[in-house]
Design a protein that fits this description.
single chain, about 260 residues, about 45% helix, binds nicotinamide-adenine-dinucleotide, seven-stranded parallel beta sheet, globular, oxidoreductase, oxidoreductase activity
Length: about 260
């Protein structure tokens, strides 16, 4: 299959739904053999089924990205079954709740474990394969919450700030080895992850929360999973050959105000 990722093996974490699901399907349409990695096995299989029905190549791999041994084992399996990983979209993440006054310690730990440690563990496993083959692209999922303060989101903001710092650090280490590392900072995209947060923002009213959030976006609407997936595709492809250490805000102008 021809395409911008033809001949590449791509891993999409959190590929069972939301932005990751859209990216996994797009990467497969662009010719990649895709490993859909998710802690939710049924969701990963659903994405894989859709890719295969459309004529693409994909496997589902299940792991909790906070577990180093599980992550290393699935990346070994991906290398055995599909070949050396050339593209990683490090997308899986979780939200947090609360300001610094009322955030719970468990929630903080979970958010840091998935968003920061999980991103690091997957990047490490992928980078080891990429360094051996002398080429590769890693795209880490940040958020506008890394760039501006978002109310009642203390742990999440801190975790995504760490992802941006990790991206810059990795880009410096890996550029001489032929591996590019960039981050996307999406604005709000309507996905299952966001529903509880939007409902809370609206005082229990999802529609009100949606309207309040949309008002923060100069473009006058929220983003779509496909729009973020397109940025991930560009950064993963050779079209972005001179981009490394870049932090791309895909946010409808939200952080430009
Ligand atoms: N939706 C937004 O508005 C928005 C905005 C900015 C950034 N983001 C970021 O984009 C990414 C995807 O968000 P989404 O809205 O598509 O979320 P989502 O909840 O729809 O999808 C996240 C996926 O990650 C998986 N996942 C969660 N924890 C995992 C773990 N420990 N191990 C493996 N997989 C795990 C889930 O099972 C799920 O399939 C996240 O990193 C999120 O922080 C989202």
């Amino acid at each position: 299959m021809a395409g911008r990722l033809a001949g590449r093996v791509a891993v999409v974490t959190g590929g069972g739904g939301g932005i990751g699901g859209a990216a996994a399907k797009l990467f497969a349409e662009e010719g990649a053999a895709v490993a859909v990695l998710d802690v939710a096995a049924a969701a990963a299989k659903e994405t894989v089924d859709a890719i295969q029905q459309a004529g693409g190549t994909a496997i589902a791999v299940t792991a909790d990205i906070t577990d180093a041994r599980a992550v290393d084992a699935v990346f070994d399996r991906i290398e055995r079954e599909l070949g050396s990983v050339g593209v990683l979209y490090n997308n899986a993440g979780v939200n947090s709740a609360g300001s610094v006054v009322d955030a719970e310690e468990d929630d903080w730990d979970r958010c840091m474990a998935v968003n920061v440690k999980g991103t690091f563990l997957c990047a490490r496993a992928a980078a080891r394969q990429m360094v051996r083959s002398g080429k590769g692209s890693i795209v880490n999922q940040g958020s506008v919450a890394a760039l501006v303060g978002v109310a009642n989101f203390a742990a999440y903001c801190a975790s995504k700030g760490a992802v941006v710092a990790l991206t810059r650090s990795m880009s410096v280490d890996l550029a001489p080895k032929g591996v590019r590392v960039n981050a996307i900072c999406p604005g709000t995209v309507y996905t299952p992850l966001m529903e509880p947060m939007l409902t809370a923002r609206g005082g229990g009213d999802l529609e009100k929360g949606l309207a309040m959030t949309t008002a923060k976006y100069p473009i006058g609407r929220l983003g779509t999973p496909a729009e973020i997936a397109n940025v991930a595709l560009f950064l993963s492809s050779d079209e972005a050959a001179f981009l490394t250490g870049s932090v791309v805000a895909a946010d409808g102008g939200m952080t430009s105000q």
